[in-house]
Amino acid sequence: MHKIELSYLLSPRRGKDALIRNPMMDMLHAVSEQGSISKAAKVLALSYRHVWGSLKDWEQALGRGLIVWDKGQRARLTEFGAKLLWAERQAQARLAPQIEALTNDIERAFSTAFDDSAHVLTLYASHDAALSALREQASGHGLHLDIRFMGSVDAIAALNTGRCVMAGFHTRDQPGRQSAAAQAYRSLLKPGLHKLIGFAHRRQGLMVARHNPLHITGLADLARPGLRYVNRAAGAGTRVLLDDLLLEAGLPPPAIAGYDLQEPSHTAVAQAVASGAADAGLGIEAAAREKGLGFVPLALERYHLVCLKSELPAPAVQALLAELQSGNWQALLSRLPGFSGEAAQSCQVLSLRTVLPWWRYRTSKI
Prior knowledge:
Elements: H1 23-34, H2 37-43, H3 48-62, E1 67-68, E2 76-77, H4 79-111, E3 119-125, H5 129-139, E4 143-149, H6 152-160, E5 166-172, H7 180-185, E6 194-208, E7 229-232, H8 237-249, E8 262-263, H9 266-274, E9 280-284, H10 285-290, E10 294-308, H11 315-325, H12 327-335, E11 339-340, E12 349-350, H13 352-355
Parallel strand pairs: 3-4, 3-5, 7-8, 7-9
Antiparallel strand pairs: 1-2, 5-10, 6-9, 6-10, 6-11, 6-12
């Protein structure tokens, strides 16, 4: 059986009907009604050569005849051609309401592109529940966030190669010069080139089973014999945070069973714990609460948004800043488990050197 492919056209106005048009069916209908290729071409405002050639091409592609090509006789459809027209009429009649609804849905989707007051901002970011909430709220105000969740390192790399306008990543407050965070992000971020936008403070900790039956109280418990940990992938901001915490605690990664077991998001880690596939995993409090898990706080961190300094005046970026400054967003952020905006200077454009003091500059000698 031959397969069907659908396409659409963008035009200032819609045609006289809501049918899905097919040029072969239009030509077959015209030949059937007019009785000749030349008259059919005239009705369709096409050349005789174009109609004749197209019908021959379709016959070859379908492996069936469409037209009875008897010289000096009225042009007529073959039985196969007539059945094609009949099948098309049946489908159009049966699917007319769905076709109309689909057309309306597509027009609504494209209306954003033609609305000068609407903006689309492409954002590659470390997985975060607050960003998902912001996307839902902002869309009602004409700001559409095209978010693709990935590791923090990959998100900033995408920003630097022009694949997105903004990236999202996270670090602890004032991370040290020799921290895993500094090693991961220092080469990707440049003072004078990038600008940070404060987004939120959030808590990260160990997600554990409900009521914490294994009595896990901190990182040291991860080295217990038989305890199963689930990690995030290399390059994820949460993996960077874990490596920093392990270094400070003097725990080598091989001491943790499951360090090499990876999940792609906070939600996936929470699901692994909830299903019993793991006993603990580092993640945000919101993900733990959503799955009904216990939560052992370990770190308070800033979630940063970063863009090129040259993009700050862009309408989409300014619309994002206005959304972050709104009282509605601040109220929603304060209701999310483990999140706050005030301490993170939410909605403010921040100095890279002040928030991430990793760079040393030569000072002139007097």
